Amino acid sequence: MDTDTARGIVVLDVGATNTKAVLFDPELNVVAEESAPSAKLVGPPYFAIDPAPILALAERVVPEFDTILPVDAVVPCTHGSAAALLDRTGALALPIMDYNAEPPEAVIASYAASAPGFDEVLAPINPGGLTMARQIWWQAQAWPEAFAKAHTLLPFAQVLAHWLGGRAVSEVTSLGAQTQLWDMVRGGPSSIARAQGWDRLMADLAPAWSIVGHLDPRFCGAGLRGRGEIRAGIHDSSANFLRYAGSGLGRFALLSTGTWIIGFDAGADPSRLDPARDTACGLTIEGRTVPICRFKGGEEHALIAGDAPQPALADIASLVARGVMALPNFTASGGPLPGPVGHITGGVDGAEASALAALYCAQMTVLALEAMSGTPPERVIVDGPFSQNTAYLGLLAALLPDSSVRASMLREGTAAGAALLGLARGQNGDLPSLPIALAPAEPFCIEGIGTYHAAWRAAAEART
Fold first, then answer.
1. Nearest to 360 by CA among 279, 454, 297
2. Is 144 helix (H, G, I), strand (E, B) or coil?
3. What's the distance, CA 415 to chain centroid?
4. What are the angstrom distances between the C-alpha of 22 and each of 48, 59, 86, 351?
5. H-helix or E-strand containing 109?
6. Cβ(95)–Cβ(82) under 8 Å?
7. Would strands 379-383 and 253-257 be described as parallel, antiparallel, or unpaired?
8. Alpha-carbon distance 294 to 127, whole Å?
9. Can you say whether the dihedral through the CA atoms of 79, 85, 88, 90 is positive or negative?
10. Inter-residue contact 340 to 430 (CB < 8 Å)
């Protein structure tokens, strides 16, 4: 093996609910994994992220993983709705806001009056604290003395890289993750970032794959066998897309599933995107736009299904025959048909609840793909937990007869995409092409499914 090739790659994958540390070998096989809950601080001043357990997990597991494979690279990977404001000493000027923090009505109104246009940032103002620029606006408006101490603004992934021992950098997938901080058309900080002076707080850009330093001794135990190089890091959904984009698949739509179902289609036309339908653009690690769609599919599935067991085909067929529907929305998180609180039109029993949840999520996915792509591409790939949901897969394949729906066999797709950065070579970040096993989803044959979907669509659209 080339001595420069990373022997062991640790990805620190920080989600809203859990933080995972995953060890990969150079072929991106998962060798070891540990996790811990992602802790929250209830405030004051607001609902916030507690970084201490994340760093404690890294402190504990990196030396352990190094005994399995020499840890040559560490890559942080997080969601795109959190940023750290550091003072001149490197301490937090304000807590890292959690995206579940709810801004006051006055902040919502004042930000809306000054927000950049969709044609510039290619992102809507997302609900709650999901839009990073609105978080910063709120912090600046409500806590001006603390905000005035801010010297550096770092997206969440990059502040973790910094705390692990790297220099402070910004990175485009994190800044372009529907934050409204980045001009997605011309590149560079957005108009609101420039007008408010936030651009002067942003650290210099570095590619996601770049080495920004080496692990602080705190994370090395008695000493590492590996090089302990820290990569700049990446937005989680962008990492997931990266893993597939480099696998020679041609055009495809990727459905990255979990708490959210987020679709990507690099072949879609950004000019047709509609902020009212929760479509937007993300960025590749090279800074190219990728149209996306999304809705909170995992959470909505859980709310509808409850503790119901996995359904049989007969459970789904019975709901279709009776015309029982779940109509959007079950979370206040946008989606392709934003509107009133959702409801269920009839009674469900036992496994029918999980059957209804699969029906709802498959139909919402179809609408989201249409909003993003117009006509969904010939290949639709499902990654993450929903790739194991046979009811969802069979229904999605039935509702997309002109597309080949495939379930990814990839374990830890988001973390694997981040780990790929640990194998980048040279200034251009040349990445290896590693294949991904995909399994075709067989469409369910359910009498009347087309008529049911048309009626569901009409009822759902009538509620918006």
1. 297
2. helix
3. 11
4. 25, 13, 28, 34
5. helix 105-114
6. no
7. parallel
8. 13
9. negative
10. no
Q: Is the dihedral of CA 78, 39, 303, 329 positive or negative?
A: negative
* Contacts with 42 (C-beta within 8 Å, 6 or more apart), sequence order: none
The two tokens of residue 200 are: 């002067």
Nearest-angstrom CA–CA distance, 179 and 124: 9
Looking up tokens 């409204």 gives 180
Listed as ranges, residues in the chain with pLDDT below 50 are: 1-2
Query: How does 329-349 read in b/e, with b if 16+ C-beta sit within 10 Å?
Result: bbbebbbbbbeeebeeeeebe
3-state secondary structure of 382: strand
The pLDDT of residue 3 is: 54
Beta strands 404-408 and 438-440, pairing class: antiparallel
Q: Do 221 and 215 meet the contact criterion of CB atoms below 8 Å apart?
A: no
For residue 283, list its beta bridge partners: 289
Give the whole-angstrom CA distance, residue 34 versus residue 405.
31
**Structure-block tokens of residue 271:** 């000019």
pTM: 0.90
Dist. CA 337–CA 329, nearest whole Å: 8
Burial of 191 (0-12, 13-18, 19+ CB in 10 A): middle
Alpha helices in 143-235 (DSSP H): 144-148, 156-164, 172-175, 191-195
pLDDT at 231: 98
Strand, coil or helix: what is 303?
A: helix
Predicted pLDDT of residue 429: 82
Long-range contacts, 62-65 (Cβ 8 Å, 24+): 62/10, 62/21, 62/215, 62/219, 62/220, 62/221, 62/224, 62/228, 63/219, 63/220, 63/221, 63/222, 63/224, 64/32, 64/34, 65/8, 65/10, 65/21, 65/23, 65/31, 65/32
| Calpha distance 163→371 (Å, rounded) | 39
For residue 74, what are the β-bridge partners? 10, 230
CA dihedral (274, 275, 279, 280) positive or negative:
positive
| CB distance 456 to 448 below 8 Å | no
Q: What is the pLDDT of residue 400?
A: 97
Which of 461, 278, 301, 460 lies closest to 395 in space, CA to CA? 301
